[in-house]
Amino acid sequence: MAELISFDIDGTLEVGDPPGCIDMEMVRKAKEKGYIIGSCSDRTVTNQKRIWSEQGIEVSFTVVKHQLESVKEAFEADCYYHIGDTNIDKQYADQAGFTFFLPEDSVPVFWD
Amino acid sequence: MPKIIPEADDLSKPFWDAVNERILRLQHCDSCDKLQYPPKSTCHICDSSDHLGWKDVEGRGHVATFIVIEDGRLNRRMPDQPYNLAMVTLDEDPTINFYSNLPGVQAYEVPVGSPVVVVFEEVAPGQLIHEWQVVA
Amino acid sequence: MQNDYRWRRDKDGLGVWEHRGKVSISGYGHSPVDRRWDGKAMDETVGAYSILACQKAMEDAGVTPDEVDGVICCDSHIAGASGGSASTWAPRPYFDAPYDSELGLTLVNSEWLVKTMGLKNVKFAPTGVPTIGEMVGMAAQAVGDGVCNTCLVIYPCGNLEGRYRRGGENSEDYARGARQWTVPWGNHGGNDFINIFPHNQYCLKYGGTHDDVFPFVQNQHRNGLMTPWGFNANNGIDMITREDYVSSRYILNPLRIWDCDRPVNTSTAYLFTTAERAKDMKSQPVYVLNHSQHSFSQRTTQPDLDEIEEWTDRAAARMYEGAGLGPSDVDIFNPYDGYSIMAQFFLEGFQWHGVKRGDAFAFYAGDISVEGPHPFSSSGGNLGNGRTRTAMYTDSIQQLRGTAGPRQVTVRAETALCAFTTPSSGGWLMLGKQPN
Questions:
Q1: Cα separation of B119 and C74, whole Å?
Q2: C-alpha distance from C378 to closest chain A C-alpha (Å)
Q3: Rounded CA gap, C207 and C172, in Å?
Q4: Does A21 lie at the interface with C, CB-CB under 8 angstroms?
Q5: How far apart, in whole angstroms, are the C-alpha atoms of residue A10 and residue A40?
Q6: Which three-class secondary structure state does DSSP give residue C391?
């Protein structure tokens, strides 16, 4: 069963501004577990790609925040998740049919 | 989601009382023969309160332009996003405009230039606000 | 007496400013520009940053604290009543004095600065000070009138965790006062709304689409990346591309996220003094040729294009009259860009470089780089530096001094017009390299 996780960056990942509670080791573990992973952020795509490159993590997608629907179109999965820290993350997740988690709520779901 | 509730004050009470009776009643300066909305303590033209009264208007207008609120700051309206916010001019005096969410119109699909009529929407028990509906 | 001081030049027909060329800005200082205060680091509060900015401004001018006899500091929250996500940003854990209240943490006022910095000879330190767009006018008039002679002007900008301005009145179920006419339909009140409707009307009337603003936004980013103290230059913000811009999400469609400035935590200070005293100060002064303020009331719910154009025409006429100058005399032009869409109204209202109503998009599409013939908004403004609201003033000073580094324009730089202002209210400042 293919599952996809989309990560917001600022306020969600430790490399974000402000830093969030999901560290890069957790992101790596998610990938090792077989999740299709990528980022969905207000940062430019160029900037997102740079972050992943600096962390040495290959991701399947990097999109801006309102483009989650395009991720769904590009990747066939049984479940789609978006992890983000603001109402706007939830708004776009809901619109795209992603299950939304706040960062702290996602930890027991994906990493425990 | 219900809209945010306007709280009338001494100046605006006559307006909101009329809205609650489904009447669009605007300030009117008899000296300048000019309608005024929102209500002010003096006439916007002559700066006097001596000739300021109230006048019922028909409630017909046109959609001048619009935006779509995708990421607003009002907590209560966030679940409605995205939604339209149109600027509606009053036919009786196009220098007067109103905001409207254009009930019945899908987000992004606002017919700019269309005629509209005033309607009234409940936002709290006993409290209406004025809205504008596109004339089919 | 201090708060009754009548300093404004906020009417038409006041003639040339009586102190034209007799007041100077002789120093400036910027604190670091952070995205937000973390609530812990005591050397990064707006209080600490304001002290630092003052020290830098005094150092730039070569002035000692004992020489300072005026302190004008904006004493209101930049985020207003809606604060941050934690409602009004207070109360919070307090620290030892002088950080035992909001003063020094998220707010600064003249009294706090005078006391904390030990400024012994201050005789003018008003309260209820407006934002920097008008504050610079207050300082110029105060020095010109002799109310004080060596005046620090401080503009702090605070930001904390949480989404900006989502708290306080924006989290309430009721709309009171002026908000009863806007909030029920979704207008949270701000210059995003005030300007986006006229912007739409502008596109309808003169042609073009919203995304024609992109070259201006890109230019702001470019200039910001050449501003060593600014947020963008210090935080790895990439140069924005057209693809970044047109693929970015909307806030108030068609206003995009990149049309909006980035709130920051910082403080800026300027040192105003008499032209006479400036001769003995360390750095090259720039002279105040005029200051003007405006506060135009809108006639109905939403200002329309006609009103925005009328307001900016009037503000321009008022400033030009007081400075004794016209559009062709203005070399450096740094209007406010808190939302990108405001700049075009100022550009056309002031007719800088001959730009008339309806010409802005075509102007933007040309060469507006600092190296070119039309170096529009050489500061990079807020879009390029973060919401400091002061880049316009600092760049103007630097351009006239010839110290703007990679941003230094290649055209004549004898006069500069700058502002933090909105079309409806605020103020403008005209500076000159020479006093006359």
A1: 44
A2: 24
A3: 39
A4: no
A5: 10
A6: helix
Q: Under DSSP, is residue C210 helix (H, G, I), strand (E, B) or coil? A: helix
Token pair 């002279």 in the structure block, residue: C287
- C236 interaction partners in chain A (CB closer than 8 Å): 47
Q: Does A87 touch chain B (CB under 8 A)?
A: yes
How far, in Å, CA of C355 to CA of C362, rounded?
Answer: 9
Q: How many residues does chain C have?
A: 436
| Owner of token pair 């919401």 | C387
Residue of B nearest to C175 (CA): B6
pLDDT in tens, B81-102: 999 999 999 999 999 999 999 9
Among B4, B80, B101, select the one facing C174 at the smallest CB separation.
B4
Sign, CA torsion B69/C420/C269/C282: positive
In sequence order, the 6+-apart residues with CB closer than 8 A to the CB of B47 are: none
Report residue B41 as tokens.
Answer: 């303590």
Return all residues near A50 (Cβ < 8 A) that are at least 6 apart.
none
Nearest C-alpha of chain A: how many angstroms from C141? Answer: 41
pLDDT digits (tens, 9 = 90+) for B44-87: 999 999 999 999 999 999 999 999 999 999 999 999 999 999 99
Asked if B7 and C252 come within 8 Å (Cβ–Cβ), the reply is: no
> Can you tell me the mean pLDDT for A44-58?
96
- Taking CB atoms and an 8 Å cutoff, what residues of chain C touch A86? 163
Q: From CA C120, how far away is CA C396, in angstroms rounded?
A: 31
For residue range C140-163, list pLDDT tens digits in order: 999 999 999 999 999 999 998 878
> Which residues in chain C are contacts of A45 at CB distance < 8 A?
244, 247
- Report the gap between the CA of A2 and the closest CA in chain C (Å): 28
Closest CA to C224 of C436, C339, C382: C382
| Radius of gyration of chain A, Cα coordinates, nearest whole angstrom | 12
Q: Are strands C255-256 and C250-253 parallel, antiparallel or unpaired?
A: antiparallel
- Between CA C185 and CA B129 the distance in angstroms is 9
> What ipTM was reported for this prediction?
0.98
pLDDT digits (tens, 9 = 90+) for C210-249: 999 999 999 999 999 999 999 999 999 999 999 999 999 9
Partner-chain contact A45 C35, CB within 8 Å: no
DSSP C240: P
The 3 state secondary structure assigned to C273-291 is: EEHHHHCCCCCCCEEEEEE
